[in-house]
Amino acid sequence: MKKDIVEFDLKYPKIVKRAGKRYGEILDLALRYRKDTEFFLEKKDYITAFGAINYGFGLMDAVEKIVEIEKR
User: Fold this and answer.
1) Among residues 72, 66, 34, which one has the least CA distance to residue 53?
2) How many structural domains comprise the chain?
């Protein structure tokens, strides 16, 4: 899951830049899930950590797709 966190950290600023402030609340939630992932990893709760990082990616992917559709 450490690779997932690194991937998240690389992808997040790019999406924030593309999406602007319009989707800030959703992207903030994604970032919170990413932080939760580290918390659960420290507790050795790998299943919950896996779920948290995937929720974060899901929110980012949704915003990315919406922005892509809006620009058509």
Assistant:
1) 34
2) 1
